[in-house]
Design brief:
Layout: E1 2-8, H1 11-21, E2 27-30, E3 37-45, E4 48-56, E5 62-66, E6 87-91, H2 98-106, E7 111-115, H3 120-131, E8 140-141, H4 149-160, E9 164-177, H5 185-194, H6 200-212, H7 232-237, H8 246-255, H9 280-283, H10 285-301, E10 306-317, E11 320-331, E12 357-359, H11 378-387, H12 396-405, E13 409-412, E14 416-419, H13 421-433, H14 441-454, H15 460-480, H16 482-493, H17 496-499, E15 501-505, E16 512-516, E17 522-525, E18 530-533, E19 539-547, E20 554-559, E21 566-569, H18 571-575, H19 600-603, E22 604-607, E23 615-619, E24 627-630, E25 635-639, E26 643-652, E27 659-665, E28 678-681, H20 687-690, E29 693-697, E30 716-717, H21 735-743
Parallel strand pairs: 1-4, 1-7
Antiparallel strand pairs: 2-3, 3-4, 5-6, 8-11, 9-10, 9-12, 10-11, 13-14, 15-16, 16-17, 17-18, 19-20, 20-21, 22-23, 23-24, 24-25, 25-29, 26-27, 27-28, 29-30
């Protein structure tokens, strides 16, 4: 029987034409490029019976482009393109492998019919398709790829010097593609989505109707192994007169069925099988399509494996090695009843032996780049859910249907699940509060515990109590941390993000983050889709465009007013403490970085005289009305007014071990005796400094401060040292000791 290859301009058109001409009795399978399907059926052509193969291209097969430097607009004078620039014809989309696909499908065909538009573009594609029944061999480079363009060009130049390719080795090996395991629910749902275009919930409902009507066995099962007493021949005989697969079934019954592969026995229900014969007219629509698949799958499980011969030829061109391979089907086996599983035909390789030579027609270099993974399909999601133990055969379609109905994802073409903004923000919010709530580990752990109960290896009440306790704690923690979720929701679904103003640069993408002033105030990076909490009840401004040495985020300055506290902070460190002795909500005045000029280690003076745990820290932004403030409570000491410069010395007081301060006063307003302008001393012990320090409490205390108000209220002079017996939490004297304090 002769073969007619028919080619349309796009896959959807090929499917429609084949369905009409075959009256729905076609079989379909994906081509080797994964983009175009091949629809096969028998019919009449030129008054003789033939086998039709209907497929398509995806628009233009080839494109015209400039060569070398002429393809880089920044390196060539555009005027040269009109006269001197050489061009080449190459594949329009190399990822589709359209040329190889057409060569494979066209092999052995007697006629070609082109279903293309009757215009100049359609005629052009006609010639492109015709030019692809060429018999040249395409060789793959053994190195596959290199990431240095100059190195790749060197290999290309070396190979182009050679005119012949010499055969180095040939091999022919018989291989087999195994028949499928018996059908369980998860596999049925996976195929229904990927091949039939049916969502899991719809497929499950359709299967249940087929079961209640007596056409298939119970559709909820995890088992892929037929029971020993299962009547395989009896189920097969019911299909012996079916118009679509009668020949295959009769041949199996005559020659003897093949023993099914040993699968998994979950101890629930037998695999899904047809219970009686049915036709398309009887069932119609999706019910027929699902029934047809279930029946074909059952027949395939008792068929023989597909056997094919894989041939490989290795060539040497100059110093480089190349390979080409081809497959020839020996026995189609189960792929006769499941044609979409058939081994894709590849190039027909010539008969040759070591030492033979072939003429090199063309050597070219392709420049490509990696691309991010596509959205998950329903079938891929079902596979991952089964792998990670998320849900059961009964609950998987319900879970997928729920995330669709709740608008967390939308189903795009190809049954791909695209997360919505709501879904993305929800996951980010859960991940920010408790990552286990969105990771598959916690659900799979519960499923494993249930399996242990079923096996008698775990106590039901203990597992129940433990699980309830875990989720109760998670619930309360989530409720206590719900503000983080609210922030993400507001930024994504309210006009706040649009009304925010650019303030500081993100350390990850180096783009400006927007400052959202409405409470709770925060910074939001729209590029990274990250939100950073800020101290409340104060003003925020950029801090001199200085950056955090740990994460490169620009620092911002929080202030409660001219007479209150102020300190710089890194938005990232404030939300993600960099050291284990820090907590969330700590600014630079509590950061224990050993060398950063803004940290407690460099600006800390000594223990607060009011609270138990605070340290007085110099506010370097407060001049000329200098301030020293506690990093825990709301104590503020105003000091050294009109001083030109105040800095924390590396030296410490011999009496109280507090850090000394180096102070430079303006000559005209110096309070120092003898018109001196510089003085170094201890703010607690030095009699000169004691007269220049005024202690008060900050006007306001923001919620992130963990200290309460001091024990002593009102104004007063700080004349004494810290109370005796209290250790000074001042940093170690040298930086190596400081570093050791973090890592030991």
């Amino acid at each position: 029987m002769k073969t007619v290859l028919m080619v349309a301009e796009k896959p959807s058109l090929a499917q429609s034409i084949a369905k009409i001409l075959s009256r729905g009795s076609m079989s379909s399978h994906k081509g080797l490029n994964g983009a175009c399907s091949v629809h096969e059926y028998t019919g009449t052509f030129d008054s003789q019976p033939v086998r039709f193969k209907m497929t398509s291209v995806c628009g233009h097969v080839m494109t015209l482009d400039f060569l070398g430097k002429y393809n880089k607009w920044d390196k060539v004078d555009p005027a040269e393109l009109f006269s001197q620039a050489p061009t080449e014809k190459k594949e329009a989309n190399p990822k589709l492998n359209m040329v190889k696909f057409l060569q494979v499908e066209g092999r052995g065909c007697d006629y070609i019919v082109l279903w293309l538009d009757c215009d100049k573009e359609g005629e052009n594609i006609c010639f492109e398709v015709n030019a692809d029944k060429d018999k040249s061999l395409l060789l793959d480079w053994d190195r596959v790829r290199v990431f240095d363009r100059e190195i790749a060009q060197m290999f290309l130049n070396m190979t182009k010097l050679e005119k012949e390719a010499q055969v180095e080795a040939t091999s022919r090996k018989e291989k087999a593609k195994q028949r499928p395991l018996a059908l369980n629910t998860v596999e049925m749902l996976r195929v229904a989505s990927s091949a039939l275009g049916m969502g899991p919930q719809h497929a499950m409902q359709t299967a249940e109707r087929l079961y209640t009507q007596g056409y298939i066995s119970y559709p909820r099962t995890e088992t892929t192994h037929y029971p020993e007493n299962f009547d395989l021949k009896g189920s097969l005989r019911q299909q012996a007169n079916h118009p679509y697969w009668a020949d295959t079934v009769k041949q199996l019954l005559t020659e003897g069925i093949n023993r099914p592969r040993k699968g998994h026995d979950a101890g629930d229900h037998p695999p899904i099988t047809p219970m009686r014969s049915a036709t398309e007219d009887e069932l119609g629509g999706d019910a027929w399509r699902l029934y047809e698949y279930i029946t074909r799958h059952f027949i395939a499980t008792v068929s023989h494996d597909c056997k094919y011969l894989q041939s490989t030829i290795s060539f040497q061109i100059g110093p480089e090695l190349f390979t080409c391979s081809g497959k020839t089907v020996i026995s189609p086996g189960f792929t006769e009843i499941m044609p979409w599983q058939s081994v894709p035909l590849e190039e027909s390789l010539p008969t040759c032996q070591r030492g033979d030579t072939f003429t090199v027609g063309e050597v070219k270099m392709l420049e490509k780049q990696t691309s991010p993974p596509d959205y998950l399909t329903e079938a891929e999601l079902i596979t991952l859910m089964e792998k990670h133990g998320i849900g059961t055969d009964a609950s998987i379609p319900v879970h997928i249907n729920n995330i669709c109905q709740r608008n967390y994802v939308t189903v795009e073409s190809g049954r791909r699940l695209k997360p919505t903004n709501l879904g993305i923000v929800l996951v980010h919010g859960y991940y920010k509060i408790d990552a286990e709530l969105v990771l598959p580990t916690i659900r799979s752990a519960v499923e494993k515990q249930l399996n242990l109960i079923a096996q008698g290896k775990a106590d039901y009440r203990q597992v129940l109590g433990h699980t309830l306790d875990v989720f109760k704690r998670k619930f309360h923690y989530f409720v206590d941390s719900i503000a983080g979720m609210d922030e993400l929701m507001e930024v994504s679904f309210s006009p706040l993000a649009a009304t925010g103003k650019p303030l500081s640069r993100c350390g990850k993408c180096h783009r400006f983050m927007k400052y959202i002033q409405a409470k709770p105030s925060r910074l939001h990076c729209s590029h990274c889709d990250e939100t950073y909490t800020l101290p409340q009840n104060g003003t925020i401004k950029l801090y001199k465009e200085l950056r955090c040495p740990l994460d490169d985020f620009e620092l911002v300055l929080w202030s409660s007013g001219s007479r209150g506290k102020s300190y710089p902070l890194c938005p990232y460190c404030y939300n993600h403490p960099p050291f284990r002795d820090m907590k969330k909500g700590m600014g630079c005045n509590e950061c224990t970085h050993p060398t950063c000029q803004h940290s407690l280690s460099m600006l800390g003076i000594g223990q607060c005289i009011e609270c138990e745990s605070g340290i007085l820290v110099l506010d370097p932004t407060s001049g000329p009305k200098w301030k020293v403030a506690c990093n825990k409570c709301n104590v503020v000491a105003h000091c050294f007014e009109n001083a030109h410069r105040v800095r924390v010395s590396a030296d410490t007081c011999n009496t109280c071990e507090a850090a000394l301060l180096d102070v430079d006063f303006n000559k005209a307003k110096s309070p120092l005796p003898g018109d001196e302008t510089q003085h170094t001393g201890c703010v607690f012990c030095d009699p000169v400094f004691q007269e220049l320090v005024e202690l008060k409490h900050a006007a306001s205390c923001h919620p992130m401060h963990r200290g309460g108000p001091g024990r002593r209220q009102g104004r007063g002079r700080a004349r004494g040292r810290r109370p005796p017996g209290k250790p000074n939490p001042r940093r170690p004297k040298d930086k190596m000791s400081a570093l050791a304090a973090y890592f030991v």
